Amino acid sequence: MFFLFPMLFTFLNIYDMIGTIYKDVGIMRKVALVLGASSAIGYAIVEELIKKEYDLSITYYKRDERVKKLSSASILVTKCDITKEEDIVRLIDVTIQKFGKIDLLVNNVGVALDHLISEKTKQEFLQVLDTNVVGPFLVVKHALNYLDGGVVIHIASTDGIDTYNEYDIDYSVSKAALIHMTKALAYALPSIKFYAVAPNFVDTEPIREMNPIFLKEELQRVGQTHLIKPIEVAKTVLCLTDGKKKSGSIIVLRGDENE
């Protein structure tokens, strides 16, 4: 009977070694790269992915208090200006150095500079497009070699479909472009699954800071009965991570009585 103990200990040691190797090369845990993790939507997405035991590479730009506290052996936190290609290249490099792969990419970076058309400047218009469209494209471009078989999810908006208004023409154009880029990438890169989640008004700090009368009128105009919670967007993202839905799909969250 006792002669079995050395064999058992040997087996357990080998098992532990294999487990360590698998973890080191990222076989046992999936890796997600989440841009814009400091926003309400981004942070909610990160929280859901932590529950699913993902290794995470997450970014912030200005607001860093919450995300920096998440830094750990399994969570890499990086400052990234998505309008600077060198920042994107560095982000992909440090992510691969840390985790060796990217299974899931979530582009949640965006900016809105709302003004009347007559007051909007060329610089503002280009800044919105650079942040909301060009930046996400460059992230996909530079992550391409590590995304084969992976999933890419863009956070868009119903403003890119049919809820646009006279103040956010550049934002609406950018989100429409992001939606169409999602479809075009799905066609061009069939080995990767591409999706976009397009919510209506979400219960975030910028929305809560809106003029309450204007917000109420806008909600009525677009038929939205309640502000969408960030967790609702996050759970929608989570449902797409298995890549089973048709690539190029756009998931719309209306925030109406049907949801």
Corresponding CATH superfamily: NAD(P)-binding Rossmann-like Domain
H/E element order: HEHEHEHEHEHEHHHE
CATH fold field value: Rossmann fold
Radius of gyration: 21 Å
Average pLDDT: 90
Strand order of the largest sheet: 3-2-1-4-5-6-7
- SS summary, helix count: 9
Q: Strand portion, in percent? A: 5-15%
- Helical proportion? 40-55%
What does this structure look like?
The chain is an alpha/beta fold and 259 residues long. It has a single domain (28-253), classed as Rossmann fold (3-Layer(aba) Sandwich), CATH 3.40.50.720. Helix content is 46%, strand content 14%. The protein has nine helices and seven strands, in the order αβαβαβαβαβαβαααβ. It has helices spanning 4-24, 40-51, 65-68, 85-99, 122-143, 169-188, 205-208, 212-221, 230-240; strands at residues 31-35, 55-60, 75-79, 104-107, 151-155, 193-199, 250-253. Strands 3-2-1-4-5-6-7 form a seven-stranded parallel sheet, with helices on both faces. The protein is globular. The termini are far apart.
